[in-house]
Prior knowledge:
By secondary structure, this protein is an all-alpha fold. Mean pLDDT is 82; it is low at 6-10. The termini are far apart. 76% of the residues lie in helices and 0% in strands. It has helices spanning 16-22, 26-35, 50-56, 61-70, 85-91, 96-105, 113-256. The protein is built from seven helices and no strands.
Amino acid sequence: MPPLNIPSLNDQEKVMLYQYAFDENADAVIARAQTHPHEAEYKDSFGYCTLHILAWNKAPIEAIDAVYKAYSGAITARNNYGSTPFELAVREKAPQGVIEYLREADPSKRITEAEENYHSLRIHVEETKMRVCADHNDVVTQVTGVSRDVQNIRDKHRTDLGKVEGDIANLQRENRNLKIETKCLVSFVESLKEELNEIRSLAAEKENSRNREVNELRNAFDTAMVKMKATLESENNEKINNFRQSLIKVVCSLDST
């Protein structure tokens, strides 16, 4: 913004058009320029007139046209720094329509065609630079987003990998425990087999011993029965003989009587 020169109380009414331009109130500028065209001639202590302010602020072309029609002399007016409204518009990169309007309205045409092309080229370069910067920012934003996504994927994979590695470690530990338990179980089964074989051997030995004892008892019983039978037969024969002899004696005694 140009330096602001606060007007005195006596100048308040005179500079309303200037103040509207300074406040960037385009509609008020247009209306005021039509009802109070003389205010367009006002200059502040720095040499800025209303048209300077409008050019500086890149005002709409309608407001510039209204002020120019109110006071056409403002088109060639220079501020204390030697600048016309057209030169301010070029320097502040006003819209191309505004620059063309002020250029056509300024009879002095202070800049050459080459300078105008230079300024247009500079504007084009600046616009291109702004577009390139915007594209660069978009690319940087996209690359940043992709990098963030890649990092998130890496973090997720790292987390998943850590979980998988932990599961593998647990499975390996469980496998080792199972192997140890299997070995212990196999050893226990082998010991049971050995004990069972020993029990079978002992049972077989006991069975053989019992069979031998039974056979011995049976043989002893058979021998005792044979002996007992022989004894009983001998005793019976002796008793029969004794009875026979007794009977014969009785018969003989009966015969003698």
